[in-house]
Amino acid sequence: MNAPVTIDNKPKPAPRKAVERAIDTTRQTARDAARRTAEGIEANPISVLVGGVALGVLAGALIPRTEQESKLLAPVGKRLTETATGAVQAARDAGKAELDSLGLNKEAARDQVGKVIEGVIKALSSAGAAAAKASSGKE
User: What percent of the chain has pLDDT over 90?
Assistant: First the structure.
């Protein structure tokens, strides 16, 4: 087996060859990991976004806030809270309006439950009458 040679045609020492092989393997492993990570992000962008937000919230909770930050960010936080509250209320109102337009509201649900209960009572009554008739015919 021929020993690897360098540019000046001198044989490479064996340990150097092992180190180069280890470096090549590490590079290939890093490339594979980066490719798999990119594929995972492309396949599940929402979960990556949620994970990023969770990581940001965790970092924000663990890093102490300075007095200057509190002074500067208090109005921003108040505006964000007000905006988020308004958005939630608007979404709730829009959802209720959509359900009402489809006829899905508390009154409609109550009517449907009442009809189901009436049907069950009627079915039980019919079954009881049929059982009584069958048992009286056998005697």
Answer: 0
Mean pLDDT, residues 47-61 taken together: 83
- For the CA atoms of 120, 122, 123, 129, what is the dihedral angle to 10 degrees? 140
Cβ atoms within 10 Å of 105's Cβ, excluding its own: 13
Q: How many residues does the chain have?
A: 139
Domain ranges of the chain: 11-61, 75-103, 105-139
Cα separations in angstroms, 101 against 88, 95, 97, 111: 20, 10, 6, 16
Higher pLDDT, 32 or 42: 32
